[in-house]
Prior knowledge:
alpha+beta
Amino acid sequence: MNKQTNIVLIVLIGIFLVSCSTTKVVVLEDKTIYQKADWDEVDGWEDDRLRNVKQSFTRSCTKLKEKEHWKEVCHKLVTLSDEEEIIREFFEKNFTPFELVNKDDDNEGLITGYYQPVLRGSRTKSEKYYYPLYKVPKDSVVVDTKKGTRKRVVGREREDCYTRAEIDGYGEPLKGQELIWIDSKVDGFFLQIQGSGLVMLDDKEIVSVGYAGKNSHKYVAIGRVLVEMGAIERDEVSMQSIRKWLKENPERVDEVLNQNPSYVFFRFIDTIDPIGSYGVPLTPKRSAAVDPRHVPMGYPLFISCDSPIGDDINALLFAQDKGGAVKGRVRADLFLGNGEDAVELAGHLQEKGKIWILLPNDKKLVQSIIDNELF
């Protein structure tokens, strides 16, 4: 470690605890490193105006309050004003920031963004609305509860679900299990990446669809596929450049999309706000998808990075979602809401940044880490 003084290592491989005057580094199962910081060491902390923080935190607390070391701080939140300085003081008094650090002591990781797509669709198939979003297949079972990954039940065996090429091919193995129909295969593909969205029907009704599960095949980024094909330069890859290439090469759309065999299934949800994998509604610019192997779901984070559009991003967020492409210790995917600005920023945001996890000042927390209850 770079800092050699006042260090406590909590290592859950052997489980042992070496105590010094203050906790400086936490290592969980040799996979996650948290390095204690002072608030003035959190880059951009004073720059965040903290709008809608209480709303997003309240949503996390619907579940966090069941955990012993969150009960008190979630109870305090109920009567808290949502004024900026009061929110800031609340966090500074009740939480300690810990910076996420990679195995090589590097404290920077990838920060990206995602949005809530708005598609056009119909409850019935037509020449215009030809492409289906599918429900969870009837012949499948969950084999990974964290990811919602499913396999097919064939007799007494469990086999991989159909690939994207098979599902969208002429065989139509999921025929009869359509949830709704949309007007663009490419829009449906990107909806699967985002995980949820809105579908506007011709009668102006808006229905909300959310993630219901996925097949058992590994996610493959088609941006990487296009780079390997020589179709797009590596430093020019964005959602916008990918969409542009697909629009200009319609005869190769299936070829490229099918390089990603992973497939997402959907369900109708009752709220216009998308529901994250944590089970609570997401708040634009206050929710993020994380890798739950390294960041506990529901917990507050502070993220600092450059922005390709507009001001730098310095934001207090909550880990309320996860995604197939969100892997790693210092890694976050910011939920940006819907609309043109959200789409534009999400399509270009691929920046190196820093992440701090904010842990409540509870004397029982260290013991909960030792007992592996944090995750």
